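Trying the structure run again after the queue cleared.
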Amino acid sequence: MENLNAIGLDIQRSEELAKKLNVLLANYSIFYQNTRGYHWNIKGDKFFELHLKFEELYTDLQVKIDDIAERILTLGHAPQHRYSKYQDASAIKESQEVTDGMKAVDNILSSLKSILTLQRELLDLSGEIGDEGTNALMSDYIREQEKLVWMYSAFLKK
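Done. Tokens:
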């Protein structure tokens, strides 16, 4: 029992999971800010349609960022909060192109691919250590985001 944390999970494996969740948090945080930039700066004939879709997306990302941080705390660890650390840890980089809707959607698809890959790794790891809370969270996110990939891809006619 001494090697278990407050929710009954192995302390060392929970730390490994929390570190990977912090990487996911970094990716979500950069993705969120990029999406805010698209929402604020979009121009062109798809403005009205994309402006609303980007707002829906960043609102959802904001909720997920909070969920991930709280999950890290539940595991007994501290969520990272500094953007300088996010930039170092994230596979998603700050977007330089924020006015072109098609490029923004393409960037969103690329970001979702990075996040889905990380979430699948977390799904496997959380399953290995019996962490149903993290496992369920990742499973829900994957299902939602696979649908988003389909929708954004259809918008780009991919």
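The mean pLDDT is 97. Worth checking whether this holds up in the mutant runs.
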